[in-house]
Amino acid sequence: MKRIILILSLAVTAAAANAQASGHSKWEENGGSNQLKIRQDNEFALTEISASGRVITFTDLPALTKPTWAVVTDVNGEVLSQRRISPSCNTMDLGRLPKNSLYFVTLMYRNKSQKAFTLNF
Questions:
Q1: CB atoms < 10 A from the CB of 56, how many?
Q2: Is 81 exposed, middle or buried (0-12, 13-18, 19+ CB in 10 A)?
Q3: Is the pTM for the entire model greater than 0.70?
Q4: Can you tell me the mean pLDDT for 77-92?
Q5: Which one, of 101, 96, 93, lies nearest residue 70 by Cα?
């Protein structure tokens, strides 16, 4: 019986280490029981960006209670554009930005950078 408990303990420890290393989830105890659950550290872990021409679209945006902002900066960190986004308003037109440049799109939630993307138009 002690061997089974030791093996299960090692398996749970390894799974928790892998979850923390991925940066997307964190293992935590579920109340006082021996069961474990996964908690998302970043609400935007599944959010992706796609570009069609000079319009970018965010997919898999979570519905959150506080505003989410998409902020576009250049390589010098200067803010070029920003827009409040949500699952129902998930596009940004970047047609005014100069062509052949590198841009960074950062999703901001609760005044913190949550996820960043790189664009090369």
A1: 21
A2: middle
A3: no
A4: 95
A5: 93
